[in-house]
């Protein structure tokens, strides 16, 4: 059996969107066809025992393109007879590609996310990505926005679209809705939900600045912010004057996420691009998970986030720096419940048709087959 070595900093049990993306691709490969080299993380030993393929852990929680990491990866290529290497995130570990070829790898696949698109905003980032791309056979991109950014430094004939999938059986309307709403005391109030890491790019602060305007038109509305991160104290400070109409839950277990999404009536994450284009949204899989849960979405216009929305059909796209735009979008959806419900239904149909894991896995298989054929 031809084996693929996956070298990645982003892998469970560490939580995150990139981790879920990489794991979702690997989980759908034939058992024994993949070997993973990833950093050590709390509870990784138990997690690794449950996988139908070898997972080799680096001694620390971060891997950089150092000689030690290169030697270990090259040793795995030899030990398992790997003909292909996939870098779970092209930057920066893709710099190891020349050493992988020396070890006997015939083809190299680089998977990119939002941060590689951000790197194209800096001269040094462009140079690094050009170097990475020069040693790749295939470089994947999430959507049209990331393709436009990457093609500045990577030949277009190397670029192949590969986006994450959504499990529409896990993320579904009503999946745990009543349980979560009861636990949080939401009752029958209309709920705007934001589920994401709490960092400035995601725009939870813009939601809070927009919220007083929402309450003027929909006085019983509730804003539910789910997630953890360094911006939490700032958000809690902004929420204090809101008279109990905002709940910030902190992080919740991954298994509980479908229930929290289903508990909302509108999903909103008005992300914005920061730091001159370096800090940018690559796609925003959570918009698609919300659509699969039957919610209309309000997305920010940062980077590739609009690629996860059919404007006016599955949701709305706003300027994440403009609280007034966010207010208007939320009020429209909360007051037009029938229209919002129709958007959610169209969103679920679209995700099931265009963003399934079966489709993502099939694309990944074609990428590997095209590079694994002698």
UniProtKB/TrEMBL annotation:
Top-level lineage group: Bacteria
InterPro entries: Glyco_trans_1, Glyco_trans_4-like_N, Glycosyltransferase_grp1
Glycosyl transferase family domain segment(s): 178-350
Residue span, Glycosyltransferase subfamily 4-like N-terminal domain: 33-169
SUPFAM superfamilies, alphabetized: UDP-Glycosyltransferase/glycogen phosphorylase
CDD domains in alphabetical order: GT4_PimA-like
Alphabetized UniProt keyword annotations: Glycosyltransferase, Transferase
Gene Ontology molecular function, alphabetical: glycosyltransferase activity
Pfam families to which the protein is assigned, alphabetical: Glyco_transf_4 (PF13439), Glycos_transf_1 (PF00534)
Entry's EC annotation: 2.4.-.-
Keyword Glycosyltransferase: yes
The name this protein goes by in its record: Glycosyltransferase family 4 protein
Species of provenance: Streptosporangium amethystogenes subsp. fukuiense
């Amino acid at each position: 059996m031809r084996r693929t070595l996956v070298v990645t900093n982003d892998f469970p049990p560490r939580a995150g969107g990139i981790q879920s993306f990489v794991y979702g691709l690997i989980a759908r490969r034939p058992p024994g066809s993949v070997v993973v080299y990833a950093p050590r993380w709390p509870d990784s030993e138990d997690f690794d025992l449950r996988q139908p393929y070898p997972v080799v852990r680096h001694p620390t929680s971060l891997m950089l393109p150092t000689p030690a990491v290169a030697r270990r990866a090259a040793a795995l290529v030899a030990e398992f007879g790997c003909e292909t290497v996939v870098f779970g995130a092209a930057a920066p570990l893709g710099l190891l590609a020349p050493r992988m070829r020396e070890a006997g790898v015939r083809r190299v696949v680089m998977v990119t996310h939002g941060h590689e698109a951000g790197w194209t905003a800096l001269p040094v980032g462009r140079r690094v990505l050009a170097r990475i791309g020069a040693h790749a056979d295939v470089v994947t991109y999430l959507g049209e926005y990331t393709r436009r950014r990457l093609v500045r430094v990577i030949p277009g004939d190397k670029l192949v679209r590969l986006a994450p999938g959504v499990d529409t059986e896990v993320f579904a309307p009503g999946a745990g809705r009543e349980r979560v709403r009861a636990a949080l005391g939401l009752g029958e109030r209309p709920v705007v939900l934001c589920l994401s890491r709490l960092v400035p790019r995601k725009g939870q602060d813009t939601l809070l600045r927009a919220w007083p305007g929402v309450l003027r038109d929909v006085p019983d509305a509730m804003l539910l912010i789910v997630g953890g991160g360094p911006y939490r104290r700032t958000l809690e400070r902004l929420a204090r004057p809101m008279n109990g109409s905002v709940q910030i839950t902190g992080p919740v277990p991954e298994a509980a996420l479908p229930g929290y999404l289903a508990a909302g009536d509108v999903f909103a994450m008005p992300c914005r691009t920061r730091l001159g284009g370096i800090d940018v949204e690559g796609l925003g899989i959570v918009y698609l998970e919300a659509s699969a849960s039957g919610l209309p979405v309000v997305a920010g216009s940062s980077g590739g986030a609009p690629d996860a929305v059919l404007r006016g059909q599955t949701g709305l796209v706003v300027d994440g720096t403009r609280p007034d735009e966010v207010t208007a979008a939320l009020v429209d959806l909360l007051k037009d419940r029938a229209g919002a419900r129709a958007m959610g239904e169209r969103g679920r149909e679209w995700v099931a048709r265009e963003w399934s894991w079966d489709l993502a896995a099939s694309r990944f298989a074609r990428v590997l087959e095209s590079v694994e054929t002698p």
